[in-house]
Design goal:
By secondary structure, the protein is α+β, with helices and mostly antiparallel strands. The chain is built from four helices and eight strands, in the order ββααβββαβαββ. It has a single domain, classed as Aminopeptidase (3-Layer(aba) Sandwich). Strands 1-2-3-4-5-6-8-7 form an eight-stranded mixed β-sheet, sandwiched between helices. β4 and β5 form a beta hairpin. The protein binds coenzyme A.
Length: about 160
Amino acid sequence: MSELSFAPVDIALMREDDLDSIIEIERRSNPHPWTEAHFRNALRAGYLCLVAREHNVAVGFLIARALVDDAELLLIAVLPQTRRNGCATTLLNALIARLKELGKSPLHLEVRAGNREAIAFYEARQFRRTGLRKNYYPNGVLGNQREDALLMQRPLAA
Ligand SMILES: CC(C)(COP(=O)(O)OP(=O)(O)OC[C@H]1O[C@@H](n2cnc3c(N)ncnc32)[C@H](O)[C@@H]1OP(=O)(O)O)[C@@H](O)C(=O)NCCC(=O)NCCS
């Protein structure tokens, strides 16, 4: 998969020269953002790293990894001013198309139990809650108190 087009954004494989924009999106989206080293390691490890561009400017991205049978969505984020416009859905659809080609299912993820926007997004995209990890994240959004992780997954069978 080199380049896939879905209106209103173009989806492509992430490149190293996307990283400045990606890191900025991540910084504005995640209270505990990945560092440049995390992104470089993900690219080197061959993870599925997709970028969404609008008029050639990066506005969102996702990172996932294919496992033996299934796959894990590690990160997805969209610039705040571009949200609620289908960008994350387009990224997710591109990922799912690729995972189906690879025969991977289900797609699972962890999300902060307090991240209502993301949970609403996943539930609207057919992810179901499969478990809870108590006190999983070291730093909750409210300070030092730990935060639970909600486990979700979506089967990808054709
Ligand atoms: C979660 C996130 C990636 C969604 O990106 P997006 O481009 O806005 O998503 P889409 O436009 O494709 O889909 C939006 C849908 O998700 C749900 N949704 C998203 N934000 C929502 C909110 N604030 N309230 C209710 N539903 C919401 C709705 O179903 C919405 O559809 P609608 O606009 O037709 O009602 C984005 O909010 C984001 O970057 N958040 C910060 C990073 C993050 O939390 N990532 C997930 C970590 S696990």
